[in-house]
Amino acid sequence: MRKIAVVTGATSGIGRATALKLASNNYDLIITGRREERLIELEKELQQLGASVLRCCFDVRDFEQVKTHLGELSGRWAEIDVLVNNAGGALGKEPIQDGDIEDWDTMIDTNIKGLLYVTKVLLPQMCKNKKGHIVNLCSIAGKQVYAEGNVYCAAKHAVDAISKGIRIDALPYGIKVTNVCPGAVETEFSIVRFHGDLDKAAATYKGFQPLTGEDIAETIYYCVSLPAHVCINDLTIMPTAQADSGHFFKN
User: Fold this and answer.
1) Which of the four, 66, 96, 104, 251, has the lowest number of CB atoms within 10 Å?
2) Rounded mean pLDDT, 57-71
3) Would you call 205 a catalytic residue per the annotation?
4) CATH number, domain at 65?
5) 106 inside domain
């Protein structure tokens, strides 16, 4: 019997890599994202790996959309084994006094409220099933504040706190919660952060080898594959060349 996993923000980066990793290891997938053409492409790849797929195109920032797409899962799709709250990201990197209000709203709405909305809709069913594992994609920014990271760091600090809260509240139902905090991962993250400026994005990873989406997917799979009595509550994973949010060894 294949297991069921939900992956938000599955159209690129860590989310996409995680969906592919889980499909390769006996999971059927509920994949979500805003870019339908990418979801369709991913669906085909997952099906080629033998997975059944439920494709849901919506924006996690809109609670009504979350309810519409995930609020009435039935049959096997309601037997969720893993929820990966991956949708999120950074926008802008400047001193707080120069920050863009729209960027702030988007980061708060996606990283915090989107995670809450999806969890609010799916956790009751997981509690009813008395099983499941929630993996929240946090960041080293959720552990340490760095220059010009301000609101993004605040949003990921919230994810860190929410993960701890869910772990306590879901404890009576046997549900695991893992907070995954990567350092530098080369995906579309910096391209989005710098609003499509490819030069600035490339400079983020210059002089050292960053992590990849596949590295984080492997880590997530390890966490969700542990025995039933084992739960990794909190995990920080860094490139070897990065010690913390501000210290890198670059060539």
Assistant:
1) 251
2) 98
3) no
4) 3.40.50.720
5) yes
